[in-house]
Amino acid sequence: MQIGSREWQRYIIGGARKLGIELDERVSASFSIYASELLNWNRKINLTAVTDPREIAIKHFLDSLAPAGCIPDRSRLLDIGSGGGFPGIPLKIFKPSISALLIDGVRKKINFLKHVLRTLGLENIQARQIRTETLLKDPEYATSFDIIISRALSDLLTFVKSALPLLAERGTIIAMKGEVDAKELDAVRADALGDQYSLEIEKYGLPSIRAKRSIVIIKHLQ
After folding, report:
1. Is residue 140 part of a domain?
2. What SS3 class is residue 57?
3. What pLDDT does residue 153 have?
4. Which residue range forms the structural domain that includes residue 92?
5. Domain for residue 61, yes or no?
6. CATH at 150
7. What is residue 192's three-state secondary structure?
8. Least CB-packed of 3, 117, 158, 182 within 10 Å?
């Protein structure tokens, strides 16, 4: 199987259907271009350790689409620690009406993201080299994002605390993880959330992968 082939695109479409997501050929074609650019740039800079076409389809694109049902149309999305653009760019391709800001602290990665956005002709989406703590100091971004999402999590509590000041009224924080530790969730509830927020866990599986995946969903209720 080769990136961008009809077989690869059918594999993406079939895998998404198992997640309850229907993709059209526009989306799979854009994913093909994106994946090809990812591999081309990966030869020069470290974007991903995943290079097998099937694994790229599963671990990057299908995994990025897993929280799509939590993201309303026309939302303003912030992807923290976007890296190679996951999950922000696949979500934008799938849901063109959303606007998005992708942030990462590594300039080479941001250069790649900007290249992909130009190549795909995506609008209302930006990539910036900036750390979350710096973004927090800019009043322009205070309480301005409907969705704040990240796959690049080292610590759930740290992510939630940094995201809350940026979250709009009735917004949602989405943390994409593997197994979720109960103590980790208790720490978030005790140290970051009050009765204005709900916390839910959605578990899901990916085709051909036994590893468990989880989405931590925190919603602002008022």
Report:
1. yes
2. helix
3. 79
4. 66-220
5. no
6. 3.40.50.150
7. coil
8. 182
Give the Cα separation of 134 and 157 in Å (integer).
Answer: 18
pLDDT in tens, 50-77: 889 999 999 999 999 999 999 999 999 9
pTM over 0.90: yes
Name the token pair of 144: 């301005």
Tell me how many domains the chain contains. 1
Q: Check: CB of residue 3 under 8 Å from CB of residue 56.
A: yes
Residue 160 domain-assigned (yes or no): yes
User: Do the domain assignments include residue 83?
Assistant: yes
User: Could you give the C-alpha distances from 121 to 33, 34, 109, 116, in angstroms and in order?
Assistant: 11, 11, 18, 8
pLDDT tens digit string along 9-27? 999 999 999 999 999 999 9
Rounded alpha-carbon distances, angstroms, from residue 1 to 39, 54, 55, 81, 209:
14, 8, 11, 30, 18
